[in-house]
Amino acid sequence: MTRRTFHRESEAVRQNDLIAATLDSVAELGLAGATVREVAFRAGVTPGLIRRYFDNKERLVASAYRTFISDLIAAAEAGCGEGSAQTRLAGLIRASVTAPVADGRTLSIWAAFIGTVHSDPAMAEVHSEGYQAFRDLVERLIAEVFAERGRPASPQEIHQHAIVLNALLDGLWIEISMGGDDFSRLNVVQIALNSTATLLGIDPADFKD
Amino acid sequence: MTRRTFHRESEAVRQNDLIAATLDSVAELGLAGATVREVAFRAGVTPGLIRRYFDNKERLVASAYRTFISDLIAAAEAGCGEGSAQTRLAGLIRASVTAPVADGRTLSIWAAFIGTVHSDPAMAEVHSEGYQAFRDLVERLIAEVFAERGRPASPQEIHQHAIVLNALLDGLWIEISMGGDDFSRLNVVQIALNSTATLLGIDPADFKD
DNA sequence: GCGGTAATTAATCAAGTGTATAATTTCACA
DNA sequence: TGTGAAATTATACACTTGATTAATTACCGC
Lengths: 209, 209
Fold this sequence. Notes:
The structure is a homodimer. The first copy, chain A, is mainly α. Helices cover about 70% and strands about 0% of the residues of chain A. In chain A, helix 4 (about 55-80) packs parallel to helix 7. The longest helix of chain A is centred in the middle third of the chain and has 28 residues, at about 120-150. The relative contact order of chain A is 0.10. The interface of A and B includes residues 169 and 178 of A. The first copy, chain A, binds a DNA duplex through helix 3.
């Protein structure tokens, strides 16, 4: 009986593969299904190998969460593109309510992880960082949009607008990703842009990307 | 060595206790911490007893989820009270962004459960029912508010407003319950009411509860 | 080509899980 | 006050989990 053949990989590649396999497992089977054996199998590797690249399973999962959140925010941020503040804000909104950010698989992973935040300090930290990053991005963009329109606004006002807009985007993202409604017949981007404009006190007709 | 003493309870009481113990476990330890032994311990009972009242652990968890969602919606609905449609909508909003609906423990439980929805059909059904119920409630109230104000609106318009308002409430609920921000210094009810009014095209000064 | 090193596998372990069942105890009812 | 039936406990089982370690294998540098 011969052993299975294998080939060596760089640390970066292996870590990447293992994280990807973890996210796949979580997406399809939930967090409980992301066992060491399942992850190893999906990564085309043996369970024992995981511990060469991650101290323990907890670290692996936390790393996967970190990568996931980081990629998610990067994808949203990429929608900003360049141009006027208004254009960038509109781009962020569009990106937030369309694939790949707004997507069933993405939501599944997010949901699985979010449930651990309260009882796991390591996960809480990862969550907190990502959340802050997105919220700051939204707040900054709002401030820029107001400045661009020569509209005076106190930091408090901007902060409150950021809270509300952030909530709206989160909620829409969840609703759309969940897919409970028939959003295929609806122009979700238009709805998101219009509501945003309304909330910020901008004429919707004047707020496009 | 003598056995521990015990006393018999009605089926209703025992089921209730076990479900409460399950929710407590989930809230404090996450879904993974809600083991049969932990739940039994918190219910002051022996693990084996669980299976006399629930076919298996899956059923127990699903039942806990069902009561949780049901109670949550009931709490929100209770905020509606009676009076004009506008008053009731305002009441629903107030209830949605204040305790006990908006609350860390509530969010923890919700988050833990929501992560299972995608990979567990039974949980998906429970979720779907609750989600529908809340969404319909919001949509109905919006329709009544518009009717009350003598403002014509097509079903599509109402539907879209419901989507947006529901998203806003979900998002605010999460943000507030998460407690990342310093909401203690903020009048979250006022913020929620004002944004709702703005979204629905109502003068915020004219929308109070 | 070849040897040494480090990556990878294979096999195993202890702990914890949900479940099943027989032995006990409580309590309603005679 | 006994007694039978039902609720509850205690114990055990089969299985899965994350972790550990020794044996093997690939491959880099000479």
